[in-house]
Every structure is written in C-alpha cells, then in structure tokens.
Amino acid sequence: MNIFRLVGDLSHLLAIIILLLKIWKTRSCAGISGKSQILFAVVYTTRYLDLLTTYVSAYNTVMKFVFIVASYATVYLMYVKFRATYDHNHDTFRIEFLLVPCFILSLLINHEFTVLEVMWTFSIYLESVAILPQLFLVSKTGEAESITSHYLFALGSYRALYLLNWVYRYMAEDHYELIAIVSGVVQTVLYCDFFYLYITKVLKGKKLQLPA
Amino acid sequence: DLEKYYKDEL
C-alpha cells in the first residue's frame, strides 16, 4: 500500500458516499445517470468475484464489500425507491455499446483465459468507460448540481491517483500491469474536460454549466 | 502471486 493508492481508495469511497447521501437526503436522483450506476455495479461484481476465495487483507475485504453494497444500494434507490425522480428522458446512453465491446476485448486481450481473469479484465475495461452515460447526461442537461460535480471530481480523482500509485509501484517493485494502466489512462482522460470545468467554475462557487 | 497483476488492489 502507498499513499497514492490509499488516498485514491478514500477518494473513491468519498465519491460513493457523496452520491448515496445526495440521493438519500434530497430523496431525488435528478442529474444522476442510473446507467452509469448499473455499470459500476457490474464492474464491482465482476472484479470482486474472488472476494470469498482470496483473502488479501481486512482493509481489502471490507472495502470490496462496501463498494458492492453501496453500488447496488444506489441502483436500488434510483430504480426502485426514488424512481419517480429518475431522469430517464436524458439518461439514454446505450450501455450495451459499452458492455459488449468491453466483454469482447476482455476475451481477446487478457493475462490468462480463465473465468476469474477474463471477468477481472472485463471489469477493468468497463470501469474505464462506465462514467460515459453520466458525462453524457450532464452534457445533455447542460449543467450539474454542485454535489454531483463534487461526486464526479472525487470519482475522477480516484483513478488519477491510481495512475500515480502505478508509477510508484513500477519504481518500487519494478513491474507494471499494462491492462490496468492503459484503462486507467483512458478513464482519467475522459474526466479531463470535467476537471477543467470543475476547477475553473465549481471551485469559484459557480454552478457547473456546460457551454451549450 | 497477487502483486503481479495488481490483484492486491481494489
């Protein structure tokens, strides 16, 4: 464990908590893409299949449980409890266009052709594009509540910090994992224009408005 | 082993 990965995990946890609190407190999931939340639930499910078979550390096991439970709780809140506030008119990204290519790619490019390894690789590829429906929704509505932009900033920062973690691990352990690194770069690049808007607008107290 | 492919990560 290193500081980059620890802060990255905490940023990831913060993002998930911000989102759950926003939906629970405002009793509304306006401005949030349910499709992205479904993709995140798929990402954690396919990545943490080894949760019950491989013990890494208490921290690792607890965090995996928290991520899985929180992602399903968010999907439940959006599609069941507060479904009347779900913005299905704008949340129209075709996630099958993300699921199928990622699955095919995980069959073609992986470290080992086993179920666990292909599922892990699929979750890595899927996570890199899972935020697209959310960014698509923000671009369609042209704005985002400040709490939603804080959520996106924390979520985007987590994988950016993981990139630093992988640089550190390369220097400290002299090995690297290209599938995770390339996917992590793609994932972080997708947030770049949002990061720019967040830093230039939201941090100055303005609302996140996308140029129409 | 776990560290090989970052399997010790979340």
From TrEMBL, chain A:
Its main location: endoplasmic reticulum. InterPro entries: ER_ret_rcpt (IPR000133). The keyword Acetylation does not apply. The keyword Protein transport applies. It holds the Pfam family ER_lumen_recept. Belongs to the ERD2 family. This is ER lumen protein-retaining receptor.
